[in-house]
Amino acid sequence: MRILIIAVGKRTEHWISLFAALADQPGTELTVYAADVSALTARALHDLASDQKHFRYHVVPHLLGEDRTGHMASVMFHPGSARRLLSRRPDVVHIIGEAAYLSTRQAIRLRNRYWPGVPVTLYAAQNVVMRLPFPFPILERRTYRAVDHAFPITPSALRVLRTKGYRGPATIVPLGVDTDRFTPREAPRTHPFTVGFVGRLEPHKGIGDLLRAAERVDCDLLVVGDGSLRGEVERAASDRPGRVELRPWADHAELPALMNRMNVLALPSVEIVQRNLVPWIGIPLREQFGRVLVEAMACEIPVVGSDTGDIPHVIGPSGLVFPAGDADALADRLGQIRDDPALARRLAASGLSRAREEFSWRRIAEALHCAWQRLATPAGRLRPGRPPDCPPAPAYHRQDRIERSPE
Predict the structure, then answer these.
(1) What is the dihedral of CA 365, 366, 367, 370, to 10 degrees?
(2) What is the pTM of this model?
Protein backbone atom coordinates (compact mmCIF):
# COMPACT_ATOMS: atom_id res chain seq x y z
CA MET A 1 0.00 0.00 0.00
CA ARG A 2 1.30 3.40 -0.97
CA ILE A 3 0.68 6.19 1.54
CA LEU A 4 1.30 9.84 0.65
CA ILE A 5 1.52 12.18 3.64
CA ILE A 6 1.35 15.93 2.99
CA ALA A 7 2.53 18.24 5.77
CA VAL A 8 3.58 21.82 6.46
CA GLY A 9 5.03 23.60 9.45
CA LYS A 10 8.35 24.06 11.22
CA ARG A 11 7.42 22.20 14.40
CA THR A 12 7.10 18.77 12.83
CA GLU A 13 10.15 16.93 14.22
CA HIS A 14 7.98 14.65 16.33
CA TRP A 15 6.32 13.22 13.21
CA ILE A 16 9.56 11.50 12.20
CA SER A 17 9.02 8.73 14.73
CA LEU A 18 5.53 8.11 13.37
CA PHE A 19 6.87 8.03 9.80
CA ALA A 20 9.44 5.44 10.85
CA ALA A 21 6.77 3.29 12.51
CA LEU A 22 4.52 3.56 9.45
CA ALA A 23 7.33 2.63 7.07
CA ASP A 24 7.85 -0.51 9.16
CA GLN A 25 4.28 -1.68 8.54
CA PRO A 26 4.23 -4.73 6.21
CA GLY A 27 3.69 -3.96 2.54
CA THR A 28 3.82 -0.18 2.99
CA GLU A 29 5.56 2.44 0.86
CA LEU A 30 5.51 5.84 2.54
CA THR A 31 6.17 9.19 0.83
CA VAL A 32 6.21 12.50 2.70
CA TYR A 33 5.72 15.75 0.78
CA ALA A 34 6.46 18.74 3.01
CA ALA A 35 7.16 22.48 2.99
CA ASP A 36 8.28 25.18 5.43
CA VAL A 37 9.78 22.60 7.79
CA SER A 38 12.60 23.26 10.25
CA ALA A 39 16.22 22.37 9.57
CA LEU A 40 15.94 19.67 12.25
CA THR A 41 12.98 18.14 10.42
CA ALA A 42 14.73 18.21 7.04
CA ARG A 43 17.80 16.51 8.50
CA ALA A 44 15.67 13.88 10.24
CA LEU A 45 13.77 13.13 7.02
CA HIS A 46 17.07 12.66 5.20
CA ASP A 47 18.35 10.30 7.90
CA LEU A 48 15.15 8.25 7.86
CA ALA A 49 15.25 7.91 4.06
CA SER A 50 18.85 6.69 4.33
CA ASP A 51 17.87 4.01 6.85
CA GLN A 52 14.45 2.94 5.55
CA LYS A 53 14.14 1.71 1.95
CA HIS A 54 10.35 1.99 1.99
CA PHE A 55 10.42 5.71 2.85
CA ARG A 56 10.75 8.67 0.47
CA TYR A 57 10.42 12.38 1.07
CA HIS A 58 10.33 15.70 -0.77
CA VAL A 59 10.92 19.01 1.00
CA VAL A 60 9.76 21.56 -1.56
CA PRO A 61 9.70 25.38 -1.87
CA HIS A 62 6.76 27.27 -0.42
CA LEU A 63 4.95 30.59 -0.56
CA LEU A 64 3.59 32.64 2.36
CA GLY A 65 5.54 30.82 5.04
CA GLU A 66 4.76 30.84 8.73
CA ASP A 67 7.63 33.25 9.39
CA ARG A 68 5.92 35.83 7.20
CA THR A 69 2.34 35.56 8.45
CA GLY A 70 2.67 33.99 11.90
CA HIS A 71 0.32 31.10 11.16
CA MET A 72 0.65 27.75 9.38
CA ALA A 73 -2.74 28.27 7.69
CA SER A 74 -1.06 30.59 5.20
CA VAL A 75 1.66 28.20 4.01
CA MET A 76 1.37 27.25 0.34
CA PHE A 77 3.37 24.79 -1.74
CA HIS A 78 5.20 26.46 -4.61
CA PRO A 79 3.30 25.97 -7.91
CA GLY A 80 4.62 23.01 -9.86
CA SER A 81 6.45 21.45 -6.92
CA ALA A 82 4.12 18.43 -6.88
CA ARG A 83 5.25 17.19 -10.30
CA ARG A 84 7.73 14.85 -8.64
CA LEU A 85 4.82 12.95 -7.06
CA LEU A 86 2.92 12.15 -10.23
CA SER A 87 4.83 9.02 -11.22
CA ARG A 88 3.54 7.03 -8.24
CA ARG A 89 -0.22 6.88 -7.63
CA PRO A 90 -0.93 6.62 -3.89
CA ASP A 91 -3.57 4.39 -2.35
CA VAL A 92 -4.31 6.94 0.38
CA VAL A 93 -3.49 10.64 0.84
CA HIS A 94 -3.13 11.73 4.47
CA ILE A 95 -2.96 15.46 5.27
CA ILE A 96 -1.20 16.72 8.40
CA GLY A 97 -2.79 20.15 8.57
CA GLU A 98 -6.11 21.65 9.57
CA ALA A 99 -9.08 21.77 7.21
CA ALA A 100 -8.79 25.53 6.59
CA TYR A 101 -5.11 25.55 5.65
CA LEU A 102 -4.20 26.73 2.15
CA SER A 103 -1.87 23.75 1.87
CA THR A 104 -4.75 21.39 2.69
CA ARG A 105 -6.77 22.84 -0.15
CA GLN A 106 -3.80 22.40 -2.48
CA ALA A 107 -3.48 18.75 -1.41
CA ILE A 108 -7.14 18.03 -2.16
CA ARG A 109 -6.92 19.75 -5.55
CA LEU A 110 -3.86 17.63 -6.32
CA ARG A 111 -5.82 14.48 -5.48
CA ASN A 112 -8.84 15.61 -7.51
CA ARG A 113 -6.76 16.39 -10.58
CA TYR A 114 -4.37 13.46 -10.73
CA TRP A 115 -5.77 10.67 -8.52
CA PRO A 116 -9.56 10.94 -8.45
CA GLY A 117 -11.12 8.37 -6.20
CA VAL A 118 -8.10 8.01 -3.92
CA PRO A 119 -9.32 8.38 -0.31
CA VAL A 120 -8.19 11.39 1.75
CA THR A 121 -7.72 11.42 5.52
CA LEU A 122 -7.13 14.45 7.71
CA TYR A 123 -5.26 15.10 10.94
CA ALA A 124 -7.10 17.54 13.24
CA ALA A 125 -5.81 19.19 16.42
CA GLN A 126 -7.85 22.39 16.87
CA ASN A 127 -9.57 22.25 20.24
CA VAL A 128 -11.34 25.61 20.08
CA VAL A 129 -13.81 26.92 17.51
CA MET A 130 -12.08 29.82 15.77
CA ARG A 131 -13.59 32.55 13.60
CA LEU A 132 -11.30 32.75 10.59
CA PRO A 133 -11.25 35.50 7.95
CA PHE A 134 -12.29 35.00 4.33
CA PRO A 135 -11.57 32.75 2.44
CA PHE A 136 -10.61 30.21 5.13
CA PRO A 137 -14.18 29.22 6.18
CA ILE A 138 -15.01 28.36 2.56
CA LEU A 139 -11.87 26.24 2.25
CA GLU A 140 -12.75 24.51 5.50
CA ARG A 141 -16.23 23.51 4.35
CA ARG A 142 -14.86 22.21 1.03
CA THR A 143 -12.28 20.13 2.88
CA TYR A 144 -14.91 18.54 5.10
CA ARG A 145 -16.86 17.43 2.02
CA ALA A 146 -13.74 15.90 0.44
CA VAL A 147 -12.33 14.04 3.46
CA ASP A 148 -13.12 10.33 3.76
CA HIS A 149 -11.96 9.92 7.38
CA ALA A 150 -10.71 12.35 10.04
CA PHE A 151 -8.16 11.61 12.77
CA PRO A 152 -8.63 14.18 15.59
CA ILE A 153 -6.00 13.90 18.31
CA THR A 154 -8.32 14.45 21.29
CA PRO A 155 -12.05 14.34 22.07
CA SER A 156 -11.97 18.15 22.12
CA ALA A 157 -10.67 18.19 18.56
CA LEU A 158 -13.45 15.80 17.53
CA ARG A 159 -16.06 18.11 19.08
CA VAL A 160 -14.64 21.06 17.13
CA LEU A 161 -14.85 19.08 13.88
CA ARG A 162 -18.50 18.27 14.53
CA THR A 163 -19.33 21.84 15.58
CA LYS A 164 -17.79 23.17 12.37
CA GLY A 165 -19.78 20.80 10.20
CA TYR A 166 -17.70 17.69 9.51
CA ARG A 167 -20.13 14.78 9.16
CA GLY A 168 -17.86 11.93 8.09
CA PRO A 169 -16.35 9.09 10.12
CA ALA A 170 -13.66 9.97 12.66
CA THR A 171 -11.17 8.08 14.79
CA ILE A 172 -9.49 9.73 17.76
CA VAL A 173 -5.77 9.06 17.39
CA PRO A 174 -3.45 10.86 19.83
CA LEU A 175 0.03 12.15 19.29
CA GLY A 176 2.61 9.66 20.43
CA VAL A 177 6.09 8.95 21.64
CA ASP A 178 8.91 6.72 20.45
CA THR A 179 9.09 4.37 23.42
CA ASP A 180 12.31 2.83 22.09
CA ARG A 181 14.06 6.20 22.24
CA PHE A 182 12.38 7.82 25.24
CA THR A 183 13.16 5.33 27.98
CA PRO A 184 13.71 5.49 31.77
CA ARG A 185 17.12 6.29 33.12
CA GLU A 186 18.84 3.20 34.51
CA ALA A 187 20.61 4.93 37.40
CA PRO A 188 18.65 6.91 40.00
CA ARG A 189 18.64 10.70 39.70
CA THR A 190 21.06 11.91 42.36
CA HIS A 191 21.58 15.53 41.27
CA PRO A 192 19.74 18.43 42.98
CA PHE A 193 15.98 18.41 42.48
CA THR A 194 15.48 19.71 38.95
CA VAL A 195 12.33 20.96 37.26
CA GLY A 196 12.39 20.71 33.46
CA PHE A 197 10.63 22.50 30.64
CA VAL A 198 10.76 21.67 26.92
CA GLY A 199 9.10 23.88 24.33
CA ARG A 200 8.80 27.29 22.80
CA LEU A 201 9.67 30.22 25.03
CA GLU A 202 6.50 32.15 24.25
CA PRO A 203 3.84 33.83 26.44
CA HIS A 204 1.26 31.06 26.01
CA LYS A 205 3.68 28.51 27.52
CA GLY A 206 3.54 30.21 30.95
CA ILE A 207 7.30 30.84 31.13
CA GLY A 208 6.95 33.64 33.68
CA ASP A 209 4.89 31.42 36.01
CA LEU A 210 7.49 28.66 35.71
CA LEU A 211 10.39 30.99 36.61
CA ARG A 212 8.54 32.36 39.64
CA ALA A 213 7.49 28.90 40.84
CA ALA A 214 11.01 27.48 40.51
CA GLU A 215 12.41 30.36 42.57
CA ARG A 216 9.80 29.88 45.30
CA VAL A 217 10.50 26.14 45.51
CA ASP A 218 14.25 26.91 45.41
CA CYS A 219 14.91 24.16 42.88
CA ASP A 220 17.12 23.90 39.85
CA LEU A 221 15.51 24.61 36.49
CA LEU A 222 16.48 23.14 33.11
CA VAL A 223 14.83 24.90 30.16
CA VAL A 224 15.14 23.40 26.66
CA GLY A 225 13.89 25.60 23.83
CA ASP A 226 13.94 29.06 22.31
CA GLY A 227 11.60 31.92 21.56
CA SER A 228 10.72 35.54 22.23
CA LEU A 229 11.00 35.12 26.03
CA ARG A 230 14.53 33.76 25.90
CA GLY A 231 15.73 36.97 27.56
CA GLU A 232 13.57 36.33 30.65
CA VAL A 233 15.13 32.91 31.11
CA GLU A 234 18.62 34.33 30.62
CA ARG A 235 17.94 36.98 33.28
CA ALA A 236 16.73 34.29 35.67
CA ALA A 237 19.93 32.34 34.99
CA SER A 238 21.94 35.46 35.78
CA ASP A 239 19.98 36.09 39.01
CA ARG A 240 20.32 32.44 40.11
CA PRO A 241 23.75 31.38 38.84
CA GLY A 242 24.14 27.63 38.58
CA ARG A 243 20.45 27.04 39.33
CA VAL A 244 18.84 27.93 35.97
CA GLU A 245 20.16 26.41 32.75
CA LEU A 246 18.96 27.27 29.24
CA ARG A 247 19.61 24.82 26.43
CA PRO A 248 18.79 25.45 22.76
CA TRP A 249 16.42 23.30 20.74
CA ALA A 250 17.39 19.65 20.84
CA ASP A 251 16.48 17.01 18.28
CA HIS A 252 14.91 13.72 19.31
CA ALA A 253 18.29 12.02 19.53
CA GLU A 254 19.43 14.46 22.24
CA LEU A 255 16.18 15.12 24.09
CA PRO A 256 15.86 11.87 26.10
CA ALA A 257 19.23 12.45 27.80
CA LEU A 258 18.20 15.99 28.71
CA MET A 259 14.85 14.83 30.04
CA ASN A 260 16.53 12.19 32.17
CA ARG A 261 18.25 14.99 34.09
CA MET A 262 14.83 16.18 35.29
CA ASN A 263 12.99 15.09 38.42
CA VAL A 264 9.73 16.51 37.11
CA LEU A 265 8.61 18.08 33.83
CA ALA A 266 6.31 21.11 33.97
CA LEU A 267 3.99 22.42 31.25
CA PRO A 268 2.45 25.61 32.72
CA SER A 269 0.63 26.78 29.57
CA VAL A 270 -1.97 29.56 29.62
CA GLU A 271 -4.59 30.52 27.06
CA ILE A 272 -3.97 33.70 25.06
CA VAL A 273 -5.50 35.37 22.00
CA GLN A 274 -3.34 35.67 18.89
CA ARG A 275 -3.77 38.49 16.38
CA ASN A 276 -0.96 37.71 13.99
CA LEU A 277 -2.99 36.46 11.02
CA VAL A 278 -5.04 39.64 10.71
CA PRO A 279 -5.10 42.17 13.60
CA TRP A 280 -8.87 42.43 13.83
CA ILE A 281 -9.38 38.68 14.25
CA GLY A 282 -8.52 37.19 17.64
CA ILE A 283 -7.52 33.52 17.55
CA PRO A 284 -7.61 31.73 20.93
CA LEU A 285 -4.38 29.83 21.47
CA ARG A 286 -4.95 26.85 23.77
CA GLU A 287 -2.66 23.87 24.36
CA GLN A 288 -3.85 21.21 21.92
CA PHE A 289 -2.03 18.24 23.38
CA GLY A 290 1.28 18.73 25.17
CA ARG A 291 3.43 16.14 23.44
CA VAL A 292 6.36 16.69 25.83
CA LEU A 293 4.17 15.29 28.60
CA VAL A 294 4.03 11.83 27.04
CA GLU A 295 7.75 11.97 26.23
CA ALA A 296 8.48 12.65 29.90
CA MET A 297 6.11 9.87 30.94
CA ALA A 298 8.00 7.45 28.69
CA CYS A 299 11.18 8.45 30.55
CA GLU A 300 9.42 7.66 33.87
CA ILE A 301 9.43 11.33 34.91
CA PRO A 302 6.48 12.79 36.88
CA VAL A 303 4.62 15.57 35.08
CA VAL A 304 2.85 18.73 36.23
CA GLY A 305 0.61 20.71 33.91
CA SER A 306 -1.88 23.55 33.94
CA ASP A 307 -5.60 23.02 33.45
CA THR A 308 -5.69 24.77 30.07
CA GLY A 309 -6.63 23.06 26.83
CA ASP A 310 -6.14 19.30 26.65
CA ILE A 311 -3.29 19.09 29.16
CA PRO A 312 -5.45 17.51 31.92
CA HIS A 313 -6.78 14.97 29.42
CA VAL A 314 -3.29 13.91 28.38
CA ILE A 315 -1.96 13.78 31.96
CA GLY A 316 -4.94 11.78 33.23
CA PRO A 317 -4.11 10.04 36.52
CA SER A 318 -0.37 10.15 35.87
CA GLY A 319 0.51 13.66 37.04
CA LEU A 320 -0.59 16.76 38.92
CA VAL A 321 -2.69 19.62 37.50
CA PHE A 322 -2.88 23.23 38.72
CA PRO A 323 -4.95 26.31 37.73
CA ALA A 324 -3.37 28.03 34.72
CA GLY A 325 -1.60 31.27 35.55
CA ASP A 326 -1.26 30.49 39.28
CA ALA A 327 2.47 30.40 40.03
CA ASP A 328 1.85 29.67 43.71
CA ALA A 329 -0.22 26.59 42.84
CA LEU A 330 2.49 25.43 40.42
CA ALA A 331 5.09 25.84 43.17
CA ASP A 332 2.86 23.81 45.50
CA ARG A 333 2.61 20.91 43.00
CA LEU A 334 6.36 20.93 42.38
CA GLY A 335 6.98 20.95 46.13
CA GLN A 336 4.68 17.95 46.59
CA ILE A 337 6.72 15.88 44.15
CA ARG A 338 10.02 17.01 45.69
CA ASP A 339 8.95 16.35 49.27
CA ASP A 340 6.96 13.12 48.78
CA PRO A 341 9.16 10.44 47.14
CA ALA A 342 6.35 7.88 47.29
CA LEU A 343 4.07 10.21 45.32
CA ALA A 344 6.83 10.88 42.79
CA ARG A 345 7.42 7.15 42.29
CA ARG A 346 3.71 6.41 41.91
CA LEU A 347 3.20 9.15 39.31
CA ALA A 348 6.34 8.12 37.43
CA ALA A 349 5.27 4.48 37.25
CA SER A 350 1.75 5.38 36.18
CA GLY A 351 3.07 7.71 33.48
CA LEU A 352 5.45 5.08 32.12
CA SER A 353 2.63 2.55 31.81
CA ARG A 354 0.36 5.14 30.19
CA ALA A 355 3.01 6.13 27.65
CA ARG A 356 3.72 2.55 26.60
CA GLU A 357 0.12 1.37 26.46
CA GLU A 358 -1.67 4.44 25.12
CA PHE A 359 0.82 6.72 23.36
CA SER A 360 3.32 4.45 21.63
CA TRP A 361 3.88 5.53 18.02
CA ARG A 362 4.13 1.86 17.07
CA ARG A 363 0.61 1.11 18.26
CA ILE A 364 -0.71 4.35 16.75
CA ALA A 365 0.92 3.45 13.41
CA GLU A 366 -0.82 0.06 13.48
CA ALA A 367 -4.21 1.73 14.05
CA LEU A 368 -3.65 4.24 11.23
CA HIS A 369 -2.37 1.58 8.86
CA CYS A 370 -5.42 -0.57 9.51
CA ALA A 371 -7.81 2.34 8.85
CA TRP A 372 -5.98 3.19 5.62
CA GLN A 373 -6.12 -0.42 4.45
CA ARG A 374 -9.87 -0.39 4.95
CA LEU A 375 -10.22 2.88 3.02
CA ALA A 376 -8.03 1.65 0.18
CA THR A 377 -10.34 -1.38 -0.30
CA PRO A 378 -13.56 -0.36 -2.11
CA ALA A 379 -15.69 -2.78 -0.09
CA GLY A 380 -14.07 -1.62 3.12
CA ARG A 381 -14.90 2.02 2.45
CA LEU A 382 -18.57 1.11 2.54
CA ARG A 383 -18.40 -1.09 5.66
CA PRO A 384 -18.49 0.81 8.98
CA GLY A 385 -16.66 -0.39 12.04
CA ARG A 386 -13.38 -2.18 12.60
CA PRO A 387 -12.51 -5.13 10.38
CA PRO A 388 -11.64 -8.36 12.23
CA ASP A 389 -7.92 -8.19 11.44
CA CYS A 390 -7.37 -4.70 12.90
CA PRO A 391 -5.38 -4.45 16.15
CA PRO A 392 -7.24 -3.18 19.19
CA ALA A 393 -7.09 0.57 19.64
CA PRO A 394 -5.08 1.97 22.56
CA ALA A 395 -7.23 2.60 25.60
CA TYR A 396 -6.80 6.35 25.15
CA HIS A 397 -9.15 6.44 22.19
CA ARG A 398 -11.04 3.15 22.38
CA GLN A 399 -14.38 4.75 23.28
CA ASP A 400 -14.48 6.99 20.22
CA ARG A 401 -12.31 4.93 17.95
CA ILE A 402 -14.76 4.81 15.02
CA GLU A 403 -17.28 7.57 15.42
CA ARG A 404 -19.85 8.57 12.83
CA SER A 405 -22.00 11.64 12.92
CA PRO A 406 -25.72 10.82 13.03
CA GLU A 407 -27.44 11.31 9.70
Answers:
(1) 120
(2) 0.86
